[in-house]
Automatic annotation (TrEMBL):
Coiled-coil spans in chain: none
Ranges annotated as spanning the membrane: none
Source organism of this protein record: Thalassotalea litorea
Name under which the protein is recorded: DUF3604 domain-containing protein
Alphabetical UniProt keywords: Signal
Listed Low complexity bias regions: 32-42
């Protein structure tokens, strides 16, 4: 087996020829936008409590652990063709803080602060096949198509790979490349590599793969992860088996019946053009409760942000949300830079609203997702640090390539690279850094997502909390004992609002916090879906959420200061518009103060002015999983 971590790729022409065409391929009825009412709270808020001893609350049973599930290496076909020289082993070493090779030129990558857990999830389609073409000891290297793909003639290489890619998009398998024996071998190595790096209490790993369905270049991808190595199926499930998520869930149900423990995480609804959260099943049939229960059992989490953009909401869907325009990557997976036309069905907040309506109609809630953030790196390193950004693909390691464009690429493809975000992190509240504890947190949706920062966020809710609960030393214990954590359902018969506990803690060496917001969605008495944003905590003695903090970013140096903002928010809140008869959801969004975007830091490093077509600063953020109120 070729050790791609040591590979110095001699076939760079393929990467150049294919990358521009491949850069986006990580392989009916919709709601009426006018029926959604979006509003911003005009309530004045008191300055939020700031606890300098904010770590005090973290001495409870559960801690926040950060990691990634969505990670590719050269074992993914598009990682290989875009120049990656990294293997799954390299990915785990990088996450633990080791330095790894970034590209064939010898650049190196190292994370500043190691992660707590990690999962390599290479594409199931032809997993490890293309990198094995360069291994003379591998039978696949002797195939005619392998000789074409590894040809020194880029035209020959491109033609051969384009044929494979076209067939893959059509669900057609090349029997030479889809040999079950080789597929089992590569999958087993993925499992064994995760096992080798798993270190309970210190660093946790999971065996994983990505199912890469993209009908008509609309993204329906899911990452599938396994807890432990027991009873894992001999083969992953790929889009060559089926491009329908219902068939993926059937594979998962069978694996579960055979003793495996697993879950899936869909991502990039923003690139699905309305298909991710469609209001029918994959065959155009009406949503049923059985469908909803099957979907949410198999995929309890959703990836709200990653390199290819955020999919919380869109300004077209939430026009009164002044922070909706955040790292939006407005493309499908088409290589011709096709734009999506359907916002409905593409963003999570709208899906949450649609889910409430389904439930009211006794169809279950197929969109009752917990939240994580993630990466989608195709070069082992999730690269979430804005000041340590190394790109999605190996060809983007050079900041000049990221910012000014890669020679040979269409300008539209280069612009998509500039619009990539740095990716996100998945946060879990777990009792310990072990597979069982982290996996259980994911299954229970006690999770949160961030845009790459390590801000810690969580919410609780109950009809039984005393409003002075935060004065108790054991408030966290009481929060669990008397209420529900994020990701849960809340029921009750009280006419008064439940009490919400809201907590946010800044990253230790990161930016201060600007504000905490509760995002509420509900179905009103006329059957219309509504959303509203409440500024529940503001830094710097502000009482009006329309008062924005001024940026401290110095565009000459890329530095910012923490002279503004808060280190933590900890408060209770009650919904001033609570109606016990209305189904609703509540989730927390916490914003940091403005900091420089990676593209701004690249421009400064290159001695250039920041580009006018990119944000100069961003407000990094964290999102909690929701709490769903179920009206009786």
């Amino acid at each position: 087996m070729v050790n791609s971590g040591d590979l110095m790729r001699k076939h760079a022409p393929l990467a150049l020829a294919v990358s521009a065409a491949l850069i986006l391929f990580a392989c009916g009825q919709q709601s009426d936008p006018d029926s959604v009412s979006s509003s911003k709270s005009d309530n004045q808020v008191a300055p939020a409590p700031v606890k300098d001893d904010s770590n005090e609350s973290l001495t409870s049973d559960k801690q926040a652990y950060f990691g990634n599930l969505h990670v590719h290496t050269s074992w993914s076909f598009d990682g290989y063709t875009n120049g990656s020289v990294t293997a799954p082993d390299d990915a785990y070493r990088w996450a633990k803080g080791e330095e790894i090779q970034a590209n064939k030129e010898g650049g190196m990558m190292k994370i500043k602060q190691p992660l707590d857990w990690y999962a390599v999830s290479d594409h199931a389609e032809y997993m490890g096949v293309f990198v094995s073409m360069e291994d003379p000891d591998s039978p696949v290297s002797q195939l005619d198509i392998a000789k074409e793909i590894t040809s020194d003639d880029p035209a020959v290489a491109f033609k051969a790979f384009a044929k494979v890619l076209d067939d893959m998009n059509k669900g057609k398998s090349d029997p030479q490349l889809n040999d079950p024996k080789m597929a089992k071998t590569m999958w087993q190595e993925i499992i064994e590599t995760a096992e080798m790096h798993n270190d309970p209490g210190n660093f946790t790993t999971f065996a994983a793969f990505e199912w890469t369905s993209a009908p008509s270049n609309r993204n329906l991808h899911r990452v599938v992860i396994f807890n432990g190595r027991e009873n894992i199926p001999e083969l992953p499930f790929s889009t060559l088996d089926s491009d329908k998520p219902e068939d993926l869930w059937k594979y998962m149900n069978t694996a579960r019946e055979n003793g495996a423990t697993l879950l899936a995480v869909p991502h990039n609804g923003n690139a699905s053009d309305g298909m991710m959260f469609a209001l029918t099943d994959s065959y155009g049939n009406e949503i049923t409760k059985e469908y909803s229960d099957n979907r949410i059992m198999n995929e309890p989490l959703y990836e709200i942000t990653q390199i290819k953009g955020s999919s919380d909401t869109h300004p077209d869907l939430s026009p009164n949300d002044e922070f909706a325009d955040f790292e939006l990557w407005d493309y499908t997976l088409s290589a011709i830079t096709e734009r999506p036309t359907k916002r409905q069905g593409s963003y999570l907040r709208q899906a949450y609203l649609d889910g409430l309506k389904f439930e009211m109609n006794n169809q279950g809630n197929p969109f009752q997702y917990g939240i994580i953030g993630d990466s989608d790196t195709h070069n082992s390193a999730s690269s979430v640090e804005e000041d340590n950004y190394t790109g999605k693909f190996a060809g983007e390691f050079n900041p000049e390539h990221r910012l000014n464009g890669i020679s040979g690429y269409e300008e539209a493809s280069n612009q998509q690279i500039r619009e990539f975000g740095s990716g996100g992190l998945a946060g879990v509240w777990a009792k310990e850094n072990t597979r069982d504890a982290i996996f259980n947190a994911m299954q229970n949706k006690e999770t949160f997502g961030t845009s790459g920062t390590r801000v810690k966020v969580r919410i609780f809710a109950s009809f039984d909390y005393d409003e002075d609960i935060l004065n108790r030393d054991d408030w966290v214990t009481m929060a669990y004992d008397k209420g529900v954590h994020m990701g849960s359902e809340l029921t009750g018969s009280s006419d008064s609002s439940p009490v919400f506990i809201i907590q946010a803690l800044k990253e230790a060496d990161g930016a201060n916090l600007d504000r905490a917001q509760i995002i509420k969605g509900w179905v009103d008495s006329d059957g219309n879906v509504q959303e509203k944003i409440f500024d529940v905590a503001l830094s710097d003695d502000r009482t009006d959420g329309s008062q924005m903090l001024e940026s401290t970013v110095d565009l000459a140096t890329g530095k910012y200061t923490n002279d503004i903002g808060a280190s933590a928010f900890l408060l209770t809140w009650k919904d001033p518009e609570f109606d016990a008869s209305q189904h609703a959801f509540y989730y927390l969004r916490v914003l940091e103060i403005p900091t420089p975007r990676w593209s701004t830091l690249d421009a400064i490093a290159l001695g250039q002015k920041p580009r006018d077509d990119l944000p100069v600063t961003i407000q990094e953020r964290g999102w909690s999983s929701p709490i769903w109120y179920k009206a009786q």
